[in-house]
Design goal:
Elements lengths: L12 H7 L34 H4 L2 H14 L3 E4 L2 H9 L6 E6 L4 H12 L4 E6 L4 H8 L4 E5 L11 H7 L3 E5 L4 H4 L9 E5 L13 E5 L2 H14 L5 H11 L2 H20 L6 E3 L9 H7 L6 E5 L3 H10 L4 E2 L9 E4 L13 E5 L5 H11 L7 H7 L10
Parallel strand pairs: 2-3, 2-4, 4-5, 5-6, 10-11
Antiparallel strand pairs: 1-7, 6-7, 8-9, 9-12, 11-12
Helix pairs in contact: 3-10, 13-14, 14-15
Family: Belongs to the trans-sulfuration enzymes family.
Cofactor: pyridoxal 5'-phosphate
Protein name: Trans-sulfuration enzyme family protein
């Protein structure tokens, strides 16, 4: 056993992000697990054990990424070709006719998959609830087979008490932890059975890959997930696994910068006359603030805010220049989108804008948003030059 293996439990998360998933720690070995673009491997001799086929046995790159994500979440991890592949694998563990409770406010892909399954001969029975309503939640989970949580939720930033749901229900509990990341919240420690990540987002962090992961509480559930990946074929690519692992190395520093900026932008937007509401659990007045402060180690880098109407929201998306008008999130670049424009988002206010905060300077982002909202502000393209004396990362 490597000496580092004996130290892992005592290391801070920043150190584990940098150190784990490195492969063999022997002289002459590469610091990074190399990309292995192979589907087929030389067969072992009788009595020996070795990889033979990547869909069945994985690759060194998958192993390294799963070791890191599993360590961060506190359970065995399995990676998939996308976040949707990860979600589908968990749902496929359920027997036909299983009763699934899912949040009204959640990722559109999840709800689409659940609705398709419910309509296709009752693959499962779906009940959609307002998870911010404790009474509605308690009634729904009483006879469920699986409770799916998304906290904070997409895009309303609602927060659900994971421990309370797990304690109140005899069902399996799965938590989409994409917004919080393993650095801010660990659902397995709160009683969940599965944690799901779209590693496309914050873990990868650079908008250059598709990849998902599931972390299970029980080793036998990991074996079942591996079987789903093997027979369904939702395997991650070699390059994608390499990029996700490389991106994860900087997750702590990226998230620290983005989260700090998100908190500042949320406070400024809340005071802006063109903004009617800001949804961000880090704001003391947010209805989810107290629970988020208790359950999480930070409030994340995604916020939503509402303007006058849909046309104004669309105009903001068109007007921004530093922020990018794009549909995904969690990258080093800040992105904004009017989520109600998408099918299946009828519960979302028409004028709501979801903002994923990246690592840009807070003043450049604020100048850009203020200008798009119609406030007089310095041009963000010139402000950066004018403030070149300010050290990167400082927030005057």
């Amino acid at each position: 056993m490597d000496r580092l293996d004996n130290m892992v439990g005592r290391l801070h998360v920043e150190t584990r992000l940098a150190a784990l998933g490195r492969g063999a720690r022997e002289p002459g070995q590469p610091l990074n697990v190399p990309i292995v673009p192979a589907s087929n491997f030389r067969a072992p001799s009788h009595g020996e054990t070795a990889r033979e086929y990547s869909r069945d046995d994985g690759t060194p790159g998958w192993d390294a990424l799963e070791a890191l994500i599993g360590d961060l979440e506190g359970g065995p991890a399995v990676c998939f070709s996308s976040g949707m592949g990860a979600i589908a694998a968990v749902l496929e563990l359920l027997p036909v006719g299983a009763r699934v409770v899912a949040p009204r406010d959640s990722y559109t892909g999840l709800r689409g998959l659940l609705e398709d399954g419910a309509a296709a001969g009752g693959r499962w029975q779906l009940r959609t609830v307002d998870m911010a309503n404790a009474d509605e939640m308690a009634a729904a989970v009483a006879d469920a087979d699986l409770v799916w949580l998304e906290t904070p939720s997409n895009p309303l930033l609602e927060v659900v008490d994971i421990a309370a749901v797990a304690a109140a229900s005899g069902a399996l509990v799965a938590v989409d932890n994409t917004f919080a990341t393993p650095l801010l919240q660990n659902p397995l420690a709160l009683g969940a059975d599965f944690v799901v990540h779209s590693a496309t987002k914050f873990i990868g962090g650079h908008s250059d890959l598709l990849l998902g992961a599931v972390v299970a509480r029980r080793p036998e559930d990991r074996e079942r997930l591996l079987r789903r990946r093997e027979v369904a074929g939702a395997t991650p690519g070699a390059l994608e696994a390499f990029l996700a692992l490389r991106g994860a190395r900087t997750l702590a520093v990226r998230l620290r910068q983005a989260q700090r900026t998100a908190g500042e932008l949320a406070a400024r937007l809340a005071a802006h006359p063109a903004v009617s509401r800001v949804r961000y659990p880090g704001l003391p007045g947010d209805p989810h603030h107290e629970l988020a402060a208790r359950q999480m180690r930070g409030f994340g880098a995604v916020l939503s805010f509402e303007v006058t109407d849909a046309a104004t929201a669309d105009a903001v998306c068109t007007a921004v220049r530093v922020v990018t008008h794009a549909t995904s999130l969690g990258g080093v670049e800040s992105t904004i989108e009017r989520r109600a424009k998408l099918p299946g988002q009828e519960h979302v206010p028409a004028a709501l804008l979801r903002l994923s905060v990246g690592v840009e300077h807070v003043e450049d982002l604020w100048a850009d948003l203020a200008a798009a909202l119609g406030s007089p502000a310095a041009d963000p393209m010139t402000q950066s030059t004018a403030r070149s004396d300010v050290p990167a990362g400082s927030h005057p």
